[in-house]
Design a protein that fits this description.
- The protein is α+β, with helices and mostly antiparallel strands.
- It has a domain of about 170 residues.
- It has 10 helices and 7 strands.
- Strands 1, 2, 3, 4 and 5 form a 5-stranded antiparallel sheet that branches. Strands 6-7 form a two-stranded antiparallel sheet.
- Strand 3 and strand 4 form a beta hairpin.
- The two termini are about 40 Å apart.
């Protein structure tokens, strides 16, 4: 999501052995994207910088890192609460893109003062992290990248920001499941179905009296080309999702489902397809059309793989 800069940084390292001296020269080129306008005077850009040692000697192992930052310009002073809300918006965005929990290492901000210039500050951001949750995602399982979005990136970022406030509850329900990777699939499947139900209620305000199956059906009909490959029975599958939700909520009905489904591969398939259902809808929130989403998902490994799995 970047363009190259001219300010290359070069580091040269030396290590003396018993009979020889060898050197390693590292050249790193930092990168910075253009500013993307988000509306209301706000804008965003991405940057990558070198975060490794300046020098080392007699070291057997050296870690060289690239640190990625998201820069936000608000155009005017904002409160800490507004800053925290903005960070949550983009944390949710990257959770969608990477399909895994995203954690904020730190937040650095500055306040411009005409008399004193720009004053930097740091904000401590608490969060639970563990090695499993912050492991690098397999590239084939990343939902979208800057290269895939291409010249649509600016519009997608702006559309996400403009729609987030009205769809916040659904967004947080969706993103929250990525932070529950150690929970039972039953609970996470219910969370995705709840996110879809809330997304419909918040997005289609004129259809407030619909049942769950009605809401799922209306969402399905908004993206038929993208969703039919994973739910070939169409509206009939929306009824199945409603039945599964009812069973996992009450464990008594419908009679067509029994306790065997709790430990079956069928439930895993429905879980993965419901997750894809939610992701398709959120790609729509980003401003992509049904045709664009379908084309984007043609080579997306989870979508292709689960489309071939039968859930009936």
């Amino acid at each position: 999501m970047v363009r190259r800069l001219r300010d290359d940084r070069t580091r040269r390292y030396y290590r003396r052995g018993d009979d020889q001296v060898w050197s390693l020269t590292l050249t790193y080129r930092s990168a910075l994207s253009p500013w993307y306008p988000l509306g209301s005077g706000r804008k965003l850009r991405f940057r990558c910088d070198y975060d490794g040692p300046a020098a080392f000697a007699n070291t057997k192992e050296v870690t060289l890192r690239e640190i990625n930052r998201l820069e936000l310009d608000f155009g005017q002073p904002i409160s800490i609460a507004e800053l925290h809300n903005e960070l949550t918006i983009w944390q949710t965005f990257f959770t969608l893109a990477l399909r895994q929990a995203v954690y904020l290492d730190d937040a650095r901000f500055s306040i411009a003062d005409k008399a004193k210039g720009t004053t930097p500050f740091g904000l401590m951001v608490p969060g639970r992290r563990d090695p499993a949750s912050i492991a690098r995602q397999n590239h084939d399982y990343i939902l979208f990248t800057k290269g895939q979005l291409g010249n649509r990136l600016a519009g997608c970022l702006r559309s996400w920001r403009e729609n987030y406030e009205g769809l916040m509850n659904a967004m947080l329900l969706f993103a929250g499941t990525s932070y529950q990777s150690d929970s039972y699939i039953h609970a996470r499947l219910l969370a995705y179905l709840q996110a879809l139900e809330v997304l419909h209620r918040e997005r289609f305000t004129a259809s407030r009296d619909l049942t769950l199956v009605g809401r799922l059906s209306e969402l399905f009909e908004s993206y038929p080309k993208s969703l039919t490959p994973i739910f070939p029975a169409g509206l009939g599958d929306m009824g199945l999702l409603k039945d599964v939700r009812n069973y996992l909520t009450h464990y008594s009905r419908p009679k067509s489902l029994g306790s065997d489904i709790l430990w079956s591969r069928r439930l895993l398939i429905l879980f993965e397809k419901t997750r894809l259902f939610a992701e398709v809808c959120l790609l729509g929130v980003m401003g992509l059309s049904d045709d664009e989403i379908r084309e984007h998902l043609r080579t997306f490994e989870p979508y292709v793989g689960w489309s071939h799995e039968k859930h009936r």
